[in-house]
Amino acid sequence: MSTDAGTAIIGGGIVGLCVALGLAARGQDVLVLDGRDRDMRASQGNFGLVWLQGKGAGCAPYARWSLQAARAWAGFAERLSSLSGIDLALCQDGGYEFFTDRQEFQQFCQDLHRQADTLGNEFSFECLSHSDLAHRLPGIGQQVIGATFCPLDGHVNPLRLHVALRKACLASGVRFTGNVSVSAVRAKTDGFEIFCDNRQALRSNRIVLCAGLGAAQLGPQLGFRAQIRAQRGELLITERVADRLPFLSSTIRQVDEGGLQIGGTKADADVDTESTDQMAGLARHAVQVWPNLADIRVLRSWAALRVMTPDGYPIYQRSADHPGAFLVTCHSGVTLAPLHATRLADWIDGDPSAPDLEAFDERRFALS
């Protein structure tokens, strides 16, 4: 059949754009089908962390995959800036996990030791008591009983990342069709048909489903189980602060423009509505960690939906029923971005040097 694209990527978020960029770099003809501005997009509500601590403590392949991604971020940021002209504000000076519960602190330290057993000398971390922290970070709250620190952790400006990826894709020849809602996909003997709103069906030789929560509906049409669920996360944004925060943590970070971003809630949900109680809890935690934040004004807040698999690890899946169809979904799209734009694209393209990603096959859920 005549085609509109060699590869159609459904989903124009960070994951979809990274895959598009990687395939375009391999010389593929790529069309990205992007949704509407008001769609529930994890890419527009994430925390912007490049984070290694705790990633894969119970899954060695994920620990190694995350380490490769963290180490690749500096070069990836340079590549995107060169293609897009946008500074991503990447900072990888290390990050903290703060704890006010002793049992949770001890459990997390055990997890990091398990992670280190897998990664060996390539992974380093510290478990710090309150007195250690008070010496390193004068002003830490008395309720913080301890923290962990990893020198490879960092963050980027997530909105700039999204824009930079789109510009880099355009510069690399990727085509876009925006403001579309994909309602159905159909495998044909010579490719795929994609049905969007009331438009004529699009045709492609290959299809990569990067639609986030939308994969739950579209995945089964391509032979995937697509076992994903929504997890609501909430954020507070403060006024700009002249003094730089002397640390980065997984729940408190200062963006390059000066404002603070406070987050960390996790709740199963199917709508991106905010909870006043959860927001109050975020504020309390921030002040417990760093009491000097008590007088900082909160300007706005929002909720967004994470894309979660049953075990929290990515799904990279080829369709057994329909060759040429792929499912890509994860909740660590920022951290894993450098690999999605390189090694994962190699895997999708069938490169003999591509990594073995069998550990991320969705059939693991049936086996377990």
TrEMBL record:
<dbReference type="InterPro" id="IPR036188">
    <property type="entry name" value="FAD/NAD-bd_sf"/>
</dbReference>
<dbReference type="Pfam" id="PF01266">
    <property type="entry name" value="DAO"/>
</dbReference>
<dbReference type="InterPro" id="IPR006076">
    <property type="entry name" value="FAD-dep_OxRdtase"/>
</dbReference>
<protein>
    <recommendedName>
        <fullName>FAD dependent oxidoreductase domain-containing protein</fullName>
    </recommendedName>
</protein>
<feature type="domain" description="FAD dependent oxidoreductase">
    <location>
        <begin position="8"/>
        <end position="347"/>
    </location>
</feature>
<dbReference type="GO" id="GO:0005737">
    <property type="term" value="C:cytoplasm"/>
</dbReference>
